[in-house]
């Protein structure tokens, strides 16, 4: 509980592993890690004490960040699986960018609790995927969201 | 240019000035500050080098955070003005929470550039306001968003 064994972000190429939300190489970031749980995607995150909105409650921008990276990670997991691969395999993974992000804040999210983002991924075009996200604090649903992810355009690629 | 003289966040009571996005008392946060420019609201922010998505471009979660706090700050400015006050006056200001947040990412946002969020506020109910937001990097429109803010419920109040 609370642990992702094989996260898609573990397999992003080094050049794409610097994201403040989910990049394993970003020393200042959140290090979100997203994996499969059956046909749902999961990201766990425990916000720090500094990530508050007001004392006792998590900042909405951090929840939006969790949903954002959980969304693009879920898109990558799903396209990778469609291509025949799982994130524990040594195979290059697709990388998505966010086209749009929506968050509905349903109830104040207590700080000091492990958050769990659960995603349901749907292909709406070979290069455009949609993820419906629910964010739970313990068992309580605190926020819902939707991410539209698109395969990262080649113009984003930096020199190798 | 790039400076808000009288920000609504400067007047939030100390108990409500800890937000990771816009709290002046949060030593780790972004310190977003939102003020009037005529009938539009403005927040400037220069992301740090760590706030990247991939090298060269700003992380979408930071843009979402900017839009979130710009939105709630804009709601507070607008209700305060409706009540007859400007943020340079020594008068208690209203405080909003985010009901929903939407962001459309239109083009990659270059890092190292001052971002400018511009808001247009509309009252949809005495306790529920809507803010349409545009985020510019220099003169380029990089993202648009919408925030629905509601007056903070009294249940959020901590002991004084």
Automatic annotation (TrEMBL), chains A, B:
Residues annotated as domain Thioesterase: 56-140
A GO molecular-function annotation: hydrolase activity
Protein's UniProt keywords contain Transmembrane helix: no
Entry keywords, A to Z: Hydrolase
Coiled coil: none
Membrane as UniProt keyword: no
EC numbers on record: 3.1.2.-
InterPro entries reported in the protein's UniProt record: HotDog_dom_sf, Thioestr_dom
Gene3D superfamilies: Hotdog Thioesterase
Protein name: PaaI family thioesterase
Source species taxonomy: Bacteria, Bacillati, Bacillota, Bacilli, Bacillales
């Amino acid at each position: 509980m609370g642990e992702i064994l094989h996260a898609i972000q573990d397999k992003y190429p080094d050049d794409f592993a610097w994201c403040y939300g989910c990049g394993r190489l970003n020393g200042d970031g959140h290090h979100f890690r997203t994996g499969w749980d059956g046909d749902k995607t999961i990201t766990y995150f425990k916000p720090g004490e500094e990530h508050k909105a007001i004392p006792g409650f998590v900042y909405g921008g951090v929840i939006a960040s969790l949903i954002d990276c959980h969304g693009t990670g879920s898109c990558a997991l799903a396209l990778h699986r469609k291509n025949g691969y799982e994130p524990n395999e040594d195979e290059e993974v697709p990388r998505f960018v966010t086209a749009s992000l929506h968050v509905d804040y349903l109830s104040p999210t207590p700080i000091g609790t492990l958050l769990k983002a659960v995603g349901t991924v749907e292909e709406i075009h070979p290069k455009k995927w949609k993820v419906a996200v629910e964010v739970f604090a313990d068992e309580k649903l605190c926020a819902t969201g939707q991410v539209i992810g698109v395969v990262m355009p080649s113009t984003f690629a930096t020199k190798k």
